[in-house]
Amino acid sequence: MNQLTAPDLFAPGLFEGTGFYETFAWYRAHDPVSWQQPPGAPEGFWSVTRYRDVVAVHRDSTRLSSTKGMRLDSDDPAVSAVANKMLIVSDPPDHTRMKRVFIQPFSHEVLGRAEEYVEQVVADVVAAALRRPEPDLITHLERIPTDVICAIMGLPRSDWEWIGKKTTEAFESPSEVRRITANGEIFKYFIDLVNENRKTAANDFISGLTARNHSGTELTDEELVFNLSGILAGGNETTRYTLASLTHQLAEHPEQWARIAGGKVDPAVATEEGLRWSVPGMHVMRTATEPVRVGEAEIAPGQRIVTWIGSANRDEEVFDDPDVFDVGRTGNRHLSFGAGRHACLGSRLARLEVTAYLRTLRSTVTSMTLEGEPRYNGSNFTWGLNALPVVLHP
Ligand code: HEM
């Protein structure tokens, strides 16, 4: 890549492949905190590419706010409607109050009890993929995050398929009308569930969130419903993209699969490399409320800052041979779950799912083969594979 000319972060199709890693490497080396003006956008933003600067931005929630949206192309009216009511677009003190409640069901102790049915869901999905190989393995993999979260939330089994379909539609439908409609239907579903639970207290997950046992914290109905939808959304595509990326890499690197299959590498260790490599959360955005210095750049109040997690995860200052997929990588301090107060609520659950998947593959699959071209979704936000022609062999 030409050393003098800054590469275009908004080149059409950049995120339809993996060429953006070279672009990020250029910025890390030559202009680590750069000013970017996307074509056609009313305002530019500061683009942060080095690991240490990314961490500093994520940790500074006092001067860098999430309430103006946490992604480029955020829809302002939609964000204002949920700001300080939904974790991901909230600042303290509301963020602190809500996170205290929502972190409980995703804590180490509570999830320890969920491990058994995470394993059951994964075993069912892998068994189905072995029994009925589809041209696209994602048709099977997508059931893992949806079925697991529906089980954790105690939703009736008969609703799971509908929830899976609506969640996919709400985030991935090419039609904006269908996306909005599906989101509305999910909100309505949770409103009804919360109302019903007030009468019956039949749903332990919801009852746990509404109980006044979290240091006296009580959530409003809006906060409950927005965050239930946020949890559903947060763990769906992201976890699926990590599962898909790992499978893709293992199919392309049979020697890495052999290390896991042969017991040389612990699936929990390989999970971390799968997370570093897949980067389902490609960028995160904040807006400065006070002057802040990031690297060499002086950020003014009101300006937006974007951290590229995909770049931080390949920073040569932190990772040895960052462009090598190494399932046995140790000291793997990837930032795929973010950092600081907004660090992913579901990181432990996602890790459980991915590790259970690798363990199940190890006990039921001998090899996996790539039977066509995988396809990336092209997004610079929730990035990942949306077509994966891989066949698992028993
Ligand atoms: C591989 C899977 C996942 C990845 C890569 C991922 C990534 C992330 C990242 C980068 C953030 C930080 C956003 C920010 O700083 O603004 C985040 C936050 C969040 N994630 Fe995840 N996530 C994953 C799975 C899940 C799961 C399974 C759940 C559901 C339990 C979930 C729910 C959330 C929620 C609710 C937040 C907001 C937390 C807050 O603002 O305090 N995520 N996730």
TrEMBL record:
Keywords from the UniProt entry: Heme, Iron, Metal-binding, Monooxygenase, Oxidoreductase
GO molecular function, one term: heme binding
InterPro entries: Cyt_P450, Cyt_P450_B, Cyt_P450_CS, Cyt_P450_sf
Similarity comment: family membership: Belongs to the cytochrome P450 family.
Protein name per UniProt: Cytochrome P450
Species assigned in the record: Streptomyces palmae
